[in-house]
Amino acid sequence: MDTQSYLYNADFIDELYETYLIDPQQVDVGWRQYFARLQQEQPLSQPEVPHLPIQARYTDYKPQRSSGGVIDEAMLAAFAKKQAAVLRLINAYRFRGHQRAQLDPLNLQERHAVPDLDPEFYGLTAADMNATFDTGSLYGTEREKLSNVIALLKKVYCNTIGAEYMHITDTTQKRWIQQYLEGAKGEFKLDVETKKQILERLTAAQGLEDYLHTQYVGQKRFSLEGGESTIPLLDDLIQRAGGLGVAEVVIGMAHRGRLNVLVNILGKRPKDLFSEFEGKTEHQGTQGSGDVKYHQGFSSDVSTPGGNVHLALAFNPSHLEIINPVVEGSVRARQERRGNNKNSVLPILIHGDAAFAGQGVILETLNLAETRGYGTGGTVHIVINNQIGFTTSDPLDSRSTLYCTDVAKMVQSPIFHVNGDDPEAVIFVTRLAMDYRMAFNKDVVIDLVCYRRHGHNEADEPAATQPVMYRKINQQVKTQALYAQKLAQQGIIGPEEGELMLQQYRASLKTKDVVSRPVSLEFKNMIDWRPFVGTHWTQECDTTISLDVLQDLIKRFTTLPDGFQLNRSVAKLMDARRKMGLGELPLDWGCAETLAYASLLEAGTPVRLSGQDCGRGTFAHRHAVLHEAETGETYLPLRKLSDKQANFLVINSLLSEEAVLGFEFGFSSSDPHTLVIWEAQFGDFANGAQVVIDQFISSSESKWGRLSGLVMLLPHGYDGQGPEHSSARLERYLQLCAEDNIQVCNPTTPAQCFHMLRRQMLRPYRKPLIVMTPKSLLRHKRAVSHFEEFTDRGFQVVIDEVDPNIVPEKVNRLLFCSGKVYYDLVEAREEHGIDEVAIIRLEQLYPYPKQAIAEVLARYPHVKHRVWVQEEPRNQGAWWYMRAHMDVNLGHEESGRIEYAGRPASASPAVGSLQVHRQQLLDFLNDALQLDERSAKRRTA
Hints:
By secondary structure, the protein is of the alpha/beta class. The chain is built from 32 helices and 25 strands. The strands form five sheets. The protein has a nine-stranded mixed sheet. α7 (192-215) crosses α18 (497-511). Keywords: Glycolysis, Oxidoreductase, Thiamine pyrophosphate.
C-alpha cells in the first residue's frame, strides 16, 4: 500500500472505504484485501461498522520526516491507528451510550460496565486526551480534542436520554437521528414560556391525582403519580402534531393515567369525572351495560398552531394492549377519508412496560406497521415505564431482554429512553419522535422511565412485595416540585410559586368546567352515525337486482385484458362464471359472492376484504386476484368494473388473527359506509382473536355505544378432516348474543350469501355479522342458485321446505337445521323415498327469527315431532341455544318440545377418523329421519 498516496488522497480513500462497507465486490481486490486486513488488526466490538471513513483526513497533518526527507511511516501508522480508535469510540457511544445513561429517577437500576465506552478499550490513553482528532461524522465539529469529544458524547448519549437507533439499516434515517441528537449537544434550549407550560402541565397532572387521592380514598383510579411527565409529553406532542399539519389524533391506552389524560389533555370536565366516582351518573337501560370510568373514551377538538386538531381517546377494556390494532384500524379509515394522507391522522399508543414486553398483540400490531393493507404511516408509542409489572413482578421475571421496548426493534423503530424526572429532556425526545415520524412515516418509541407511587391500584400495598423500591419512592420528591425548584433557581418563577400553582389548580377543579387547554366539545364528526342509531332489525331493505344488471356485472368481472393468460384451473373457473352470466349454468358460491361485491362497488359502496388467503380464498373459490400464468402479473376484475365505482381492497393478511381482526373492527367502527370483511382461513382460527370478539365485536355497543358493521366469514362444516378446522365454534357466538348486539347467519345457497352481504350495507343500521361460511358446499352440485333467486326475492331468515313433493298436510315430522347438514338430510330423504318429513332451514340464528318460525309451524297442522338436527356434537353447535328459543314457539308442554338429532357430546369438535365420521353421520341421519323404524315397518308390511 502506498502510504503517500493515502496521505494526499484521503477523501478518495474515505469514499472508497464507504463503498467497500456497502459492497466489497465494488472495489479493487487490492483495496479489498487492505480494508479486510485493517479490520482484522482493529477488530470492532459492534456488529455494524458505520459508513464513515475509518482513517482521518491528513490535509493539515505535518508528519515528521527523517533527515533524508522521508515521511516517518511508523509515526504515521501509529497516528492512523489512534484516529481509527477515536472514530470507533464515537461509534460505540452511538451504539451503547444508552446503557450508561441516567434513566432511572429512583437510581435503583443496576448499570453494568460497558467496556466499549472506555477509551482504554481502544488503546487511547490520558496522553491522547489533549490531542486533536478528526471527529468523522460527529455532527457540528470536524476536529476536536479527544477530551472534548468524550464530554460531548457523554452529554448527548449518557445523560437523561438514552437513544437506540443504530439498529436501523436505512442510512438516511440513522444520519437524521444522529444529527438531531448531536446537533443539540445535549442542550434542550427551551424558551421561558415553554418551561412555564411544562410546569403548568406537571402541576395539572399532580394536582388531579392529589385531589382524587384525598377525596376518593381507596377507589381505583390507576394513578399517574410517578409518571406525571406523561401529561406535558402528550400536550407537546399534540401541539407539535397540529403545527405539522395533523388534523386528527387517535389515542389508545390502558388504565394507567387514563383519567388524567381525559381531564388534562382531552378536556373532560372534572365534575363529570367526580360524578362517576360518586356513582351519580344516570345509567340509561336502553344504552346497554355501560362501563367503568377508566375504560371510557372521549373526543374533543383542541387548538394548536396549525389549527384545531380532533382528539379521540379510544374506549378500552382491561385486556391491556388489545386496543392497539383497533386504534390502527380506526386511523387507517380516517386517513382514507382524507385522501389516504398518512400525515393527516396520527396514532398514539400508550403502553405499560410489562405489557409492552409481554403481550403478543404488541408484536402482531408492530408487524402490521409496514404492510400495504394495514400501515398508518407510523405510530408514536409511549411506554409509561414504571419499572415494575403488576405489583410483584420484577423485570427479571417479566421479560428476557434488557429493555421492555426491545420488541420494537423488529420493525427498526428508533427507541428513545428518557428519565421522567427530567421534563425538559422528555419534551426534547417528544419533539424528536414527532419530527421523525412525520419525516419518515415510521413507528417510533418513547420509553418514559418513571415509577409508580402507589400499587397496581390504590387498594394495593406494594411495599409488601417491593420494600426497597417503595422505601425509595416514599422518599422521592415529586416531579412537579423538582422542576419548580429548577425554574426557581433559574429565576423564572418565585420560590413558592410551584406550591401556589398546585393550590390554584386544586381550587379550579371545583369551579371550572375544563382545566385542560381550551377545547371544543361541539366538534363536527366527518362521519354522521345518526342514521344508524335507534334503528331496528325489522327495517328490511330490497337487496334484489335486475337481470340486466346481474348479467352485465358478471360479464364485466369475467372480462380479462387482452393476452392475459390464466392458470388452467382458474381459466376453467372463469369460463364457468361466464356461462353462469349467460344463464347456461346456475350460479355457484364464488360467483354469487363476487356478484354481491360488484353490485355494491358499482353503487358506490367500498369493499375491504382481508384474511390470510382471501385473495384466492382458502378453498380456491373466490379468485378476486388473478395471476397471469407466465409473468405472475396480477389483475383485480373488481377494480375494473367502471370509472365511477367505489374502491375494492383485498388483502392477503399476515399470519395474525388477533391484531388483524382488531384492526378490521377499528376500521369498521370508524367507517360505516365501507363493507369491511375479515375471513378466517378456517373458522376455528378465530380462536386466536377471541379477546377481540368478546371485548369489542359482541359488546362495544352495549359498553360504549360504539357501532360496527364488521363481517366475519368463518369456514365451517364437518367433512371428516379431523378435530381442527371443522367447527367455527358456532356455540360461542350464540352464547354472546343478547340485546340485538350481533347477527349470526349460516346461509346454505349462493343467493342467500349474495343477499346477506348486500343487506349488511343497505339496511340502515350497523351490527357485526358472524357468518358460518361453507367449505364443501362451495362446489356442491345442489348448492347453486338461479337468476330468479337474485332478482325476485331477498334474504330469507328461514327457508321453508322447497320440495314440491312434500305436502304440508301429510307431514308429521319437522326437521329444523342450519348449514351444510341440510344437504345431507335431503339426500338421505330422497334415497329412502320419504315424503312425510319436511326440512326447514334457519339461515339466521340470531336475531332469533321467531315470527318466521311461527309462520312455518302454522303450515304443518299434523306435525307430531319437531327435531333440531345438527352435525356438531350435542354440547356444541346451536342445539342448546335453539332448545331455549324454540320453546317460545312450541310451548312448554312435553309433547311439543324440540327433540335432538346429532352427534353425541364430545370434548373435541370432531373425530379424527373419516370412517368414524361417516358412521356418526349415518347414525344421526337415522335418528332424524327414523330410518330404522321405517325399515322395520317395511319389513313388517
